[in-house]
Amino acid sequence: MATLELKNLRKTYLTEEIIKGVSLSIEDREFVVFVGPSGCGKSTLLRMIAGLEDISNGDLLIDGQRVNDIEPGHRGLAMVFQSYALYPHMNVYKNMEFGLKLAGMPEAERREKITAVAKTLQLETYLHHKPGQLSGGQRQRVAIGRAIVRNPKVFLFDEPLSNLDAALRGQMRVELASLHRKLGATTIYVTHDQVEAMTMADKIVVLQKGVVEQVGSPLELYHHPRNMFVAKFIGSPPMNFLPATLIGREHSSSIIEFASGSSMHVPVYSSAVAEGSKVTVGIRPEHIEVVEAGEGSGKVEVVERLGALTLLHIRLANGQLIVVQTDGSDTSEIDSRVGLHLPSEHCHIFAEDGLAFEALNRHPLAA
Amino acid sequence: MAFKVNCGKQIAVTLLGWGVALWVFFPIFWMFLTGFKSEVQAVSTPPQLFFKPTLSSYAEVFERANYWHFTINTVLVSVIATGVALALAVPAAYSMAFMPSKRTRSTLLWMLSTRMLPSVGVLVPIYLLARNAHLLDTVLGLAIVDMLTNLPIVIWMLFTFFREVPAPILEAGRMDGASRWQEMTMVLLPLALPGIASTALLSLILCWNEAFWSLNLTSSNAAPLTAFIASFSSPEGLFFGKLSAASTLAVAPILVFGWFSQKQLVRGLTFGAVK
Q1: Which residues of B touch A85 (CB under 8 A)?
Q2: ipTM beyond cut 0.95
Q3: What Pfam families is this protein classified in (chain B) (predicted)?
């Protein structure tokens, strides 16, 4: 049982504010991912929770108890670092034993725990190796094992997979997810990789410049981004944005018009914005359809065939380049002209300040 | 072609290396030879490379002065000064390397700048301080002064070595429940041991060879080996045989010590430059 409560956390370095008031509650057993571009403050926030960085302002509560002034080692947390940060002078066994020894656990109990964890992580044969003799994946396992043996209330992961090659990263991602299911411990995971965020998280926290942009389940963020930043950040290739004007409303849907003159009804509420305002229409590459004749058209400039799917980079009449995802058997050629259809139920509309208009219907998986 | 060019360059570098090494080593070699010459042979022109060795200079040196007394003083001063310097420098370098503040860089530079001051510039104040503290001609007094003169270099070296230890490893220790002290002793020190060893070594050598303060702050009781050598350059004239014998005796222990630890020493002296 471990819950975390971040109450308006702030961090100031010298005169610059890095974390600008983050409030968040994390439920017991929840897998929370902090995601954002580099420099967004996600690692700093994690380190503040860990106790490796001071909290300039605000309160951090673990299980309802304020821990701002408690030493990192006594907050009941364990952390896995990006660089693994194993003790190079100790073998695998001693690496895992270090924390237990400091906590004063008797020898027999230590041995029992380490043996059990080593078995779970398939490290039994490496217990007497030094970290330098292990591969990247094995070091990663030791780092995780060192965290697990301490039986922490909360696991903290700081970009743990970014030093691994692609194949191993995929494998470790699955292992981590199943490990979390097995241990059921509250976990906070920092990454800039949205695949990790989407696949592992119960709850994603999108950060930018020290501010929380949106908190929600992976599919909530995908289907109902709160603003343009989240819309662009979640999803790959990123969402396309087209300039348009709000020209009216009908049965609570909004009517927008593109510069080309074509208009469409989009099922979003627009009551907050005056008619005639400039808006931005967002649509994901996978939702645009290539048709004989549609609302728009363009010239194919680049074709990327990924096997299972094809990415078309299409230049529109207004000079804008958009990306459209079609299936792997698409036969479009470079320089050919194609018609485009934008299904209105997949369109997002953003006001000038970047905030999304609320959708009339929530996606069933993102309720 | 490339091979030939490379080969020629390598030969040139090798020759240069040997040349410099011999040039640096020659005075020590000559001192060593002169120690086994009689006083007449020692000053003869042309200098004699081949001669009948004699131990008379050594005999006289041992007769005139208590070599062991000086050696023990030097060892005591060097070990105490190095030990205390390390004890002070480890926490200082730790905080500078891992918890730098705005002024860390300038503090380091300022500390180093004190080394650029000629010692003689502070001779009078230090002498008066030592006299008033009753530390003149004591091993402790000399050790304190040696320790303080070497402290900037010791901190600098440790700082550089500590900086090579990745901070996340120490943070992992802190997450594992280590106190600052445990973090320093159980994680940092074992990792930085080679660096600490070469720092200690350099400090020992600097103390061993320190002459200015030895000559000015000690007379008989606490006189170290550098004073022992100086005592053989007498106003009645130089006796090169005895002077050489005394010098050889003075540098022999540290030379042997340095020989065995040359690997550490090279690493220590080229710190930062070679990874």
Answers
A1: 166, 168-169, 171-172
A2: no
A3: BPD_transp_1
